[in-house]
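Quick one from the shared queue. A colleague (R.T.) flagged Helix-turn-helix transcriptional regulator as missing a structural entry in our internal table.

Convert sequence to structure tokens.
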Amino acid sequence: MAKAKKDIPKDDFEVFLKKVGNKIRKLRIAKGYSNYEHFAYDHDIARAQYGKYEQGKDDLRLGSLYKVLKSLDISFEEFFSDDF
């Protein structure tokens, strides 16, 4: 049975969010966007919220992660591959 978010140690979850944010940032830069605000604007993602995702400061809902990964042209499988 999967643990609810509240059962995951806060430090572990914060580390996970930072890893997700760092990977999103690297992929954005690889797509040629040096500025996260331009990327978010071009892909109809709230700029302030997207900035928090990259910083690992906010929890991404599954729908939000889907939209970000779709904008980066990457699948969930590729995103969470071995180098994650």
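Residues 7-79 form a domain with the 434 Repressor (Amino-terminal Domain) fold (CATH 1.10.260.40).
The first helix runs from residue 10 to 30.
Added to the table.
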